Structures are given as C-alpha cells and as structure tokens.
Amino acid sequence: MDLLFYSDACEFGGHEAMSARIMNALNDIGHNVHLLHFHPRFGSEVSQDIQRTNLIIHNKQIFSQWRNALKQAEVLKTALTETPPDVLVVAQGYPESGALALIIAKQTKVKAVSYIPFGYTADELHKSFGHLRKLIQRRLFRLPSGHITIDEPQRKLLARHTRHRNHPIHIVPNPFDLNPDKLAFELNAGANTVIVTAGRLNFSQKNQNLIPQVAAILGSRTTRFSFKIIGSGQDSQALAAAIRSYSVDRYVEVIPEMHHSKLLDYLREYADVVLLPSHYEGFPLIFLEALALGKPVISSPLDFLSIYPIQEYMTINPRSAVDAAHAIENFSAQFNADDYDKLRESILSNHSLNQYHNQVREITKFVTELV
C-alpha cells in the first residue's frame, strides 16, 4: 500500500515523534511510505528507506507567506495527482495544522486520514478568537475520511465533530519501550525532593508559568523542594523573567531540551517526582515514561486520566498555585505505594509495545476499508 504522510509542524514534539514512529513501523511491515515534512528533525527520526520531501513553510506561515503557501499547495497537488497514494495521512498537532493538505486531498479526491492527539476545539482550550476558530475547526474535523487518535477519551471528543455516527476512528496508543523499574521514592521528610517537568515551553498548554509561583509559596515555608524544568520553546524568556520576578532561582532551574535518551537518564538519576501541570494534553510520553521508571507523578486532572484510578492527592489544580503548592507539600505524607502500583499497572498495561504494534498493524485494515 502507498501511504503519503504530511506534517507541516514548526516544532518537533511528542506527536511528531509518534508520527515518525508509526511511519517506521508501517515501512517495516512492507508499506511504501513517503513523507512531506517541514521540521528537519524528521530527517533523523524516520527510516532512511522512507522517501522524504521538504516543505517550504510551516503551518503558522500559511497566511503570512501566501505566495509560498500557493507553491506548497502545488507541490502537494502534484504529489497527489502524478503518483497518487492510496491514502494521505495528515499528522495534525491541532486542527488547523495540516489543513492545507486536507483541503488539497478533498480537491483531488484522494482519501485522507487525520492522525491527531486532541479532539478539543479552540474555545474549550480558552484560545484567542476561540469561538471563531471553533467554527473553522469543526469544518476541518469533517474533511478526513477517518481519524487516528491516541485513546478512548480523545476518540469520544473527536466523534462529536464528525459527519455521521459511524465515522471511522482508530486508536493507536502511545507506547513505552522501557523495562519497568521498581518504585523509586523514599518517604524522607528531611530530604530535598527534586520535582521534574519536561516539555515544550508553552504556557498556554504546558503551564510551566505555574512553577515559579509554586516555588515562591513553598520557598517561604521550606527549602526541601527544588524544581527542574526541562525544555525549550516560545516562552523561554517569559519563564526566565518569572523566575527572576518571584526570586526563586535557588529553587527553579531551567534545563534546555535534551535528546530523548538523555532525558530518560536524567529522570532515572535525578527525579524524585515528575510533575505534569498542563492545561490540556493528549497522552504525554513523559507521564508514561515516569511510571515505567518507577517515578511518582503529580498531574493536572487531564482527560486521559479519567479512565484510570488516580488518587486525588496525586492531582493539582493547574489554575491555582496555592492549591498546587499544598498538594506538593503534602504529597509525601499522603503517598501510598499500593495506590501508585494500581495506577501504574492500569496505565502501562494499556500502553505496552505489543498493544501498540497490534494497533499499528490494524491501520492497514482501517485504511483498506476507507479505500
């Protein structure tokens, strides 16, 4: 089967890494995979067997560089008409990303599938011009012939926007490929607790701006907490300014984005607790990997957790620094290894490599039925 993947993402995050991984897996089982991409990191993440073509612009330049957008549309139209694939797979980090490809696919009558980790609309995420963007996004959600997403909560969210009740949505869970370690957490009230968070520095989603506020509250009462924020991105300068403003440079360190293998080594060696303060997520790899490494987790009450037995003391209110500081300060006293083991087992069992590979193989059947 001929599969053309498209990604015009300007950043390479977890969803892009998962897109590359799916391409490699489909290539390994004998499909002919071709990739149109903007971000250069795809070049090192996908197999050398996969033919790659660089895009001219990324998704956030479509309107500001309309001449280049027209050129990019022609490149895509040529790819879809001269050697038409069986299916175009559009990797979308959010609904507007990849929109150009979905529109061209509709024009050229090529079946398109959206691989997207979220089923939210902009108004639900409190984005600027949210209600206007929602109207556009709901139309975009209806362009593909089918969707691939990451778990059941997101499948339900996507199903709200599709044209008919039986619209095909296939789930491929994000996998972990680590041998699970034993729980690595000591209830030592006198020791310093290192709390690590990792991800793109993007306050509107990842909410790292909460951490300096929390550190200031905790720092006024105790010195036994330190925060390590690993990542790079658009809000790096704003984060540095917040750390200075709250005078918490003793407690908060920002570490630039690191290669995935180094991140795992860092978590294994230095993290006591992994913090996920995000406003929204699909199913973040950092959460899976923290559990696989035996690290306790504290998280916002995100949708992906709704089907798992997470205890209230393991969650924070992402919009309240006071609440988050209280939860972190009392975490050691409330932590129960049995609670942790139940959560860990229920999540890791749904995200094993075997399950992942089975669902990737099912993509073939899923796509064949669309064609």
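The above is record 1. Record 2 follows with the same two-line structure.
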Amino acid sequence: MMRYNDRTSDSNTMILGVKTEGRFRPARWLRNFLVKHPLVLIFLTAVLLRVPSWFVPYYNVDEITNGLFSNFVLNKKIDLEFFLGNTYILTHYFYTLIFWIFGPFSLRAVHVVHSLWVGLTALALYSAAFAYTRNRRAALWTAGLYAVCSIGFLSKDFHAALSESLSLLPAAIAAMAYFTALRKNRDVWFGVSGFFAAVSVLFKLTTVGLCVGLFLGLLFLGRRALVPIAYFCLSFLIGFSLPILCYGNLFEAIQAILARFHRTSGYVNFYTSLPSSYVLIKYVFRLFLIMLALSPLSVPAVYAVINFFKSYRSLFFRERAAGVALVVWLCVNAVLASMGSRVFFHYFVPSLAPLSLLAGLSYKRIERFLK
C-alpha cells in the first residue's frame, strides 16, 4: 500500500515568530506567543481587566463634568481662554478629541480609549524600569504590577478615566527619558524628560511631585548638574507654556490664568474649616486601605525604599540621583493626596507609577516569595 507524507501536519512552521510543531493549534500557539512576547500579555491584561468599566450603568461625577465641558467646546460655547490656568487642561481636550471622533458624550468610548491608555502606560513603565535597572525581569514586574494593581481598588476612583490616570503615561515617558539620560550621560534626554513632565502636569497639576523628584535628583549630580538642570527646566517651561502659546495673546492669557487660579483656590480651600485631626485620621485610614488593597505593589516598594537608604553610601552618584527622584516623587504625591482636605481615593492614583517602579526593584524578593 502506498503511504503519503502529510507535510502540513509533520513540518514545523513559523507564525508571527512562533514555531508551531505539527498541526497548528491556536490555543498552544497563543500560549507560546504570549510567553515569547510578555509585553503583549501585560498590555492585554491591562486592557482586558478594564473591559467591565466599558459597560457600567454609572460614571464618576468628574467624568460627567469633563464630558459636559467637552460638549461645550465642541458647540463653541467656550474656548481655550476658559481653560487657561485649569489644573487639568489637557484632560478636557482629551475628552473633547474623543467626543469629536465618536460623537457627543461618548463616555463609553472614553473608557475604551482609557483602557488602551493604561496599557500603553504599562509599556512606558517597562521602558522606564529597564532604563533604570537594565534588568528585563525587573522591568516586566514593574509593568505587570501596574497593569494589575491600577484597578486594585474602588472602581469609581481607580477604574474611572480621570486626569490622575491620564497623567501617568507622559509621567512614565518622562521617567524613562530621565533614567536614559543618567545611564547614557546625554543631557538632551533631560530635555525630553522635562517636556513630558510638563505634559503630565497639564493633565493633572498635582503630578508636580514627579517634577520635584526629578529636579531634586539632578542636584545629586554634583558639579555637572548645571547643564542637565538647564535642559530639564527650559524644556519644562516650553511644554508648560504650550496652552499660552496656542492662545496667542500673552496679556489676556495671564489675566485668564490669574482669574482661574483665584477660582481654583476657593475650591481647594472649601474644606479647610474641617478639624485637622479629622483630616489626618481620614488620610491615614484611606492610605492604609489603599496600601492594604495594593499590598502586592506597596510591600515590595517599601522594601525597595528601605534597601535604597541602607545601600545609599555605596551607590554611585547617578544611582543616587535616580533613587532620590523615585522616593521624592512617591512622597510628594502621597502628601499632595491630602490637598484641600478632601482626600479622595483617586488622589492616590498618581502614586501608582513610582510605586510600580520601586516594586520592580524588589523582583527577586517577589519571586522568592512566590516560590
């Protein structure tokens, strides 16, 4: 009897860089593909975990407010002058762009785009961690922990497409450029870092903790800190001044900013009559709840901070600059969460980026614990 050789089933094939042995099995191929490309898995995890937020029957009040203002922009009832001095000006135009593409008040589309935005943030944090450590496993832990823990608390605050979450993508890019500049000794990267730090602040003013951390880290470069500081500060000013430059009239823009700051200060100080003891107890209790809920992220991050201070004297000045930047970034963000005595849970969201970067440094301890 004549025997036939089925080359399709016996031969090895390559599909998207993944070798398949014998007959093609989609499930096995997908598993092999994700193992070989873990960043794809992390991106998909960040996105898929937020899919339930696409179908919620309610929205955060800040999301609704942002949507109303975006509709006003599209209907030409307000313009850029109205937002000058606003503490999250780019967030309004983020919503406006999505509404312009998908239709008025398309909050579901906002959530879908925000899910992709969070996935990109995880990838940017991977790049930042790799630039800092030059260790792929540490960088993967950083990105993976952020992808999972970014939805690890109350849905109305951590799932919502708010300015705090949107600010983390440019913040992660700023951190990546900063660590790249320290590693490669190329000052132009400090300029890139300053520009994206400004973009992050335009998404949410309270992410200024990033800028404080990066600036103080530069002071640890010693005598050669002047040029990096000049690059960083000049680029930051250029980025932060973009709304004014787009408006055109400098005098009117300054007037609008001062008027907005006056209204914002009234909003911030609205709860200052509350007893400081009440605010402190509220802050400590909510911080404890978040740290407990995000313990896979917070515990290794705290360990990394302790280890940094223990080994501080043995570190090179560039390692000190990077470590100081991360620690100050985290601490300032934690303090700013209490601003205005509100202590809303989503005020802690900007701390997720430095927490993830610090937690990634403790990847060996995490892996030892999991074993």
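The CA atoms of residues 25 and 176 lie 38 Å apart.
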